[in-house]
Amino acid sequence: MRMDSRLVLALDETDAEKALGVARSVSDIVDAIKINWPLVVSAGPEMITRLSEYSEVICDFKVADIPNTVRLIVEGSVARGASAVIVHAFTGDDSLRAAVEAAGDAEIYAVTEMSHPGAKLFTAQHAEEMARLGVECGASGFIAPATRPDRIRAIRAIVGDRKILSPGVGAQGGSAADAIRAGATYAIVGRAIYGSDDPRKAAEAYADDIRSAL
Which one of the listed residues 18, 34, 62, 120 is annotated catalytic? Predict the structure, then answer.
C-alpha cells in the first residue's frame, strides 16, 4: 500500500453509486479505501472489485472465526481485488495464521483496540498481548485508536516498523495529526469525508493535517 498522503478513507456509505462517486473524487488523495459491512451488505461484494479500479481496497470485515472460516473470507476478499483484510486478534494464533496464509501477497491487519468508548471494557485490556500475537503470526499491520493516541504509542513500541492504521478521526473526535505523531502509519477518516458536501475538499484538508505532523 502506498504511503503518500498517509490518509485512508473509511467508505461506509450504503449507496453504491454515491460510494463510487466519492471514491473517484478522492482516489488521487487517499492511499487506500477501507470498506466495511454496510457497503457490502447494501451493494454486494462486487463493490470490492469496482472500488479497486480507483484505489487499493482494505476489507474491514473484522473477521473473528475459526481458522477455516477465516481462510474462506480472506481468500474471497483477495480474489475480488482486496489489497488487505482486517481481522480480530482475540480469536487466537491458529485463526491469525490462517488469515496470513490465505492472504498471499495481500496484507492482514489485526485489531488490537477499537476507537469507540466500549473498547475500553475488554479488548483494550489485552491490546498489547494481541499486538505481540499478531507479530508472532506474521500480521502486516495493526489497528490502534486515534481517539487514544497513548494506545498507539504503546502498540508501536511492540510492533516495531509494522504498519499501524488508526481509526476514529473526525466524527469520533480523534485527530489525524495526533495519531501520526503518536506513531500511526495511516489515519483513517470516514464520515467527515464521505458525508461532507465536498468530499475531495475534506480529504485534502485531512491530508494537509497529516503532512503537518510528518
Answer: 62
